[in-house]
User: Fold this.
Amino acid sequence: MLTALSIRNIVLIESLEIDFRAGLCALTGETGAGKSILLDSLGLALGARAESGLVRRGCDQAQVTAIFEPPPAHPVYKMLGEAELEAESGESLIIRRSLSADGRSKAYINDQPISAGLLKQIGAALVEIHGQFDTHGLLDASNHRRMLDEYAGLGGNVAAYYQEWKAAEDALESLKAQALKAKEDEEYLRRALEDLDALAPQAGEEETLAARRQSLMYREQVMDALNNAYNALNHDDDPVRSAWGALERVADKIGPAADDLIGALERASNEMQEAVSLIQSLCADLSESEDSLETIDERLHEIRTQARKHHCDPDALPQKREELAAQLNLIEHQDDLLAAQMKKAGALKEAYRAECEKLTQKRQSAAETLDQKITAELAPLKLEKAKFVTDIAPLPEEHWSAHGADQVRFLVSTNPGSPPGPLNKIASGGEMARFMLALKVVMAQVGSAPTLIFDEVDTGIGGATADAVGERLARLSQTHQIMVVTHSPQVAARAAHHWIVRKSGDQDVKTEITPLEADPARREEIARMLSGAHITEEARAAADKLLQVKAA
Assistant:
C-alpha cells in the first residue's frame, strides 16, 4: 500500500507531506482546491509523462516521493530483480522522481536510477487509478483476457500444448530450410564426405602425430651418437679388459694389493658391457618405428588442410563427417522426413486446437457468471439501464498464442437497445468510474495493485446512489487500500480516514491538505459538502447521521 507522499513545488503545492493508511481514504475539498494536483503528483511518481507545466512557477525543480509497502509476494519484487535492481522481498519501496523546469526528469527506486519505462510498469503494478482520464488497467482491452482467466482460475494447460505445437512447426521449417540448402550443395557435400572418409581422421590424432614428429626430427642425430658410442665401447682392443688380463697373470707376484686393483677393473668392464646393451636397445627401438618424418608431415598436412576447409579444429573433423553424412541422408530421405515432421506438427496443432475449444467453453461459462454479477452491481450505482457484456470471439490463426485462440473484450451498453461497445467509448467520466467500481467489487482478487484510486466516482449522483457507491468502496477496502477523491458526503462519511484539501493565500496561492481525525472536524466538512459554504444545524445533524451509518 501507499504509506506516504511527499510533494515539492508542483503547481500550487509548495511543500506537502501526507501519511496514508490502509482502508478507505477520502480526499475532499472545494472545486479547484488542488485535489487533481495530488493525483497528478502521484501519477508523476508512478511513471506518468513528465510535463514542465507541473513545476511551480518561479521554481527550477519539482520533486515527488512516494513510499510503498507491498506484500512480500508482490510481483514488483520480481520485476525489480529482473531489472537488476536491489530490493528484498517485503522491503519498503521509496520512489523518487524529480522534474526540472525544462521538462527533464529523473527517477529512482530506493536510491537506484530507474528508466521511465520501467517506472511506469512498476507504478501500474502498485496503483490502479480509475477515473475520467483512465486509459490503462481495466480499460485496456489487452488486459481483459488475463482478467477473465484470473477471475475464473483458467489457463495453464493450453500453454504447454501451444509450445509443443510451435516447437514442431519451427522444427518443420528448419527441416525444410536444411533440405533446400542441402539439395543446392549436394555435389559439394558428396565430395567433402568422400575426402573425409578417405582421410578417416580420429579425435586427438593431430596432437599424437605432432608429438611423434617432434621425436622423429632428432632420430638420425641420436642414432649417429648411439652408433659412435657403441663402436667405441665394443672395440676388440678393449683397454680395460686388456689391463685386467695383464694384471691377473702377475697377481700372485703383486701381492694383496692386486685383489683391489683387479676388482676395480672387473667392475668397470661390467659397467661398460651394460652400457653397450642399453645402446643396442635404444637403437633397436628407433629402428623399429614404421613412420618416417615425411609420412607424419604428410598426414598432418592433410588433417590441417581439411580442418581449414571446414572451418573447424582438427579434433572436430570426425563430427564434421557425421554432419555431412546427415545432410546427405536428409537429401536422400527428405520427402519421408518432411512428411513425418509435417504429420507430427499437424497432430500437435489439432491437440492445441482441441484444448483451446475446452478453454473457450470454460471462458464462456465464466463470462456468463461474471456478466450477471457485474450487471447486478450496476443498478444501485444509478446504472440500472446499463448492461455489462464479456465478448469472446475467435482469433485468426496468426494470433493464436499460449493463452488460447480467443479475443476477450469487456463491453457495456448504457441504454436498452443500443449495441454494447468499449467502456471508454460508451460511458461518461462518472459512469466510467462506477463501471470500474462494479468490476473491481466483483473481481476484487484480480490484479496485483494493492492500492486503487477512484476519481469522479460520484459525478452526477447523490442520495441512495452515492451511499451505494460508498458502501461498495468500503467493501473493497477490506482487501485493498482505496483512495477516493469525492464531492459526495455519503462517500466521504464511509471513509476510515479523511483529508481535506484547501487553497490558501491571495497572491501566492498554495494548496494544503489536513487530516480530519476528530469527529467534530469531519462533521463540519461533511456538513459543508451537504449545504455549501453556509453550514446549517440541519446539515450538521445530517452529517451526524451519515457518520453513524459508517460507524454501524
Remarks:
- The CA atoms of residues 107 and 438 lie 34 Å apart.
- The chain has a mean pLDDT of 87.
- Residues 168-337 form one domain.
